[in-house]
Amino acid sequence: MVVLIGADVHKNSHTFVAVDAAGKQIGQITVRATHSGHEKAYRWARKSFIEQDRRWGLEDCRHLTSLLERDLLAHGEPVVRVPAKLMARQRATARTRGKSDPIDALAVARAMAREEDLPAAFTDEQAREIKLVLDRREDLVAERTRVINRLRWHLHELDPEVDPAPRALTHRPAQERVREVIEAGAGIVAEIAGMNLTDLERLCSLIGELDARLRAMVRKQEPVLLEIPGCAELSAAKIIAETAGIERFATESKFAMFAGCAPIPVWSGKTEGRVRLNRGGNRQLNCAIHRIAITQTRLEGPGKEYYERLRAKGKTVMEALRCLKNQIARRIWRTLTRVHAETLTNTPIPLNPTPTTCASQAA
């Protein structure tokens, strides 16, 4: 007998509901969202279903479930991630009306019973570390942009003829010229502008340190990504962080769909073959692949040749770019999968360079 345990997770509490293979509820418990609460849930499941195979399902919201995942995996419990849309659909079809933590946990468990090919949860500490550093860098970059905007308005008030480009202010020469203008001024505006400039210099220094750290982390963990034309260290870091383990994806098509690069079929009857733009998937990962695709269209190589060949066949700029992004996503999967297989077997595995056929993108 298999017992499926669905979890509805919140910041302060987790509710677990167990069902059998037919989806009938056979147990329920609510615990605090702490290590001791997770241990209590594990002991409850082990005591209540000692002779059954257990499988845990968590709604895929990793900012809330990451600690729970690590605690359950430490006990050797199998854990899968249930997409929120599957849980919502299951709840909408249930006979029980309303919304509560037990109802949501029951919907997660029944979604597990209905879907057999859900991604297994596992911890990838190296990818998590890269994501944490990358998130910190992006926060600092956003703050630097706000500081630059405020500084430019103060400079305009001090001297309207001083108008440095926003990107120029991230470099030392432009900052030194701005400091000369500020020191020549007087009053509260010049004082506040000097504070902003000091903040800007500090932020640039911190961002530079994080950039160097990310480059070192990427070259240590997945240097093979840098062999892909147009993929620099920051794009590779974004790919590693958002992928969180290429083993999660059984095929290159599933990874392309996760990245939002696979076209969605919308045909019926005589309109066979028609697809539309995929606006779903991981948009952060999609953005990194988009940067790589834009770069490849400007560099001499297979990517540019493929793009120009599609344009010659009549595809629009965006249609050709979507096809190129699809191929890049599939190459990323093949590259990382090959490296992972070599790590397990210690045997070099050749990478198939033959691209898959991109469906016609009429969207």
Give, in spatial order, the strands making up the sheet with the most strands. Answer: 3-2-1-4-5
- Please state roughly what percent of the residues sit in beta strands, choosing from under 5%, 5-15%, 15-25%, 25-35%, 35-45% or over 45%: 5-15%
Q: Quick check: average pLDDT?
A: 86
Q: Could you give the distance between the termini?
A: 47 Å
Number of helical stretches of at least 4 residues: 12
What structural class is derived from the secondary structure elements? alpha/beta
- Over all CA atoms, what is the radius of gyration? 26 Å
Which spans have pLDDT < 50 for at least 5 consecutive residues? 349-357, 359-363
Shape designation: globular
- Largest beta-sheet details: 5 strands, mixed
Q: What pattern of helices and strands is seen along the backbone?
A: EEEHEHEHHHHHHHEEHHH
- Helical amount: 55-70%
Total domains: 3
Annotation, overall tally of beta strands: 7
Topology:
Elements: E1 2-9, E2 13-19, E3 25-32, H1 35-48, E4 53-59, H2 62-74, E5 79-82, H3 84-93, H4 101-114, H5 125-158, H6 172-184, H7 188-221, H8 233-243, H9 252-258, E6 264-265, E7 275-276, H10 283-296, H11 302-312, H12 317-345
Parallel strand pairs: 1-4, 4-5
Antiparallel strand pairs: 1-2, 2-3, 6-7
Features:
about 375 residues; alpha/beta; Nucleotidyltransferase, domain 5; 3 domains; five-stranded mixed beta sheet; two-stranded antiparallel ribbon; 12 helices; 7 strands; about 55% helix; Transposase_20
